[in-house]
Amino acid sequence: MLVITRREGEEVVIGDPSSPIGVVRIVAIKGDRVRVAFDFPRTVEVHRREVADQILANGGEQANGDGRDIIGSIRPATEGG
After folding, report:
1. For a surface tag, which of 21, 39, 41, 63 has the fewest beta carbons within 10 Å of its beta carbon?
2. What integer pLDDT is reported at residue 62 of this predicted model?
3. How confident is the model over 50-58, as a mean pLDDT?
4. Under 8 Å CB-to-CB from 19, ≥6 apart: which residues?
5. Is 52 helix (H, G, I), strand (E, B) or coil?
C-alpha cells in the first residue's frame, strides 16, 4: 500500500503520466472529513469499500432490482462544497 500526503487542491495521477488511467484530487478538507474527486473513464469501476463489499456479497451482482447495473448515483461536483 502506498500512503502519501496531499493538501487541498493537490492531485495524484494514476498510471503513465503521459496518458494516465485517472486522477484523484483532494477537493476539500473540513475537520475529519476529506472530499475526494475521482476522474476516471466510465469503464473503470470505482466503489466505496462498503459498496464493493455489498457487490461481493451479492456474488458480483450490481443490479438494483430493475436490471440496471447501478448502486447509488453520481452527482456533479459543486463549487465550494
Report:
1. 41
2. 64
3. 91
4. none
5. helix
- Residue 37 pLDDT: 96
Provide the percentage of residues in the chain whose pLDDT is more than 70: 74
Cβ count within 10 A of residue 34: 12
- Rounded to the nearest 5 percent, the helix, strand and coil shares of the chain are 10, 25, 65
In 3D space, the residue among 5, 2, 27, 24 whose CA is nearest the CA of residue 13 turns out to be 24
**Cα–Cα separations (whole angstroms), residue 44 to 21, 23, 39, 51, 73:** 9, 12, 10, 15, 16
Question: How many Å apart are CA 57 and CA 60, to the nearest integer?
Answer: 7
Q: Please say if the pLDDT value at position 67 is more than 50.
A: no
Q: How many CB atoms lie within 10 A of CB 10?
A: 11
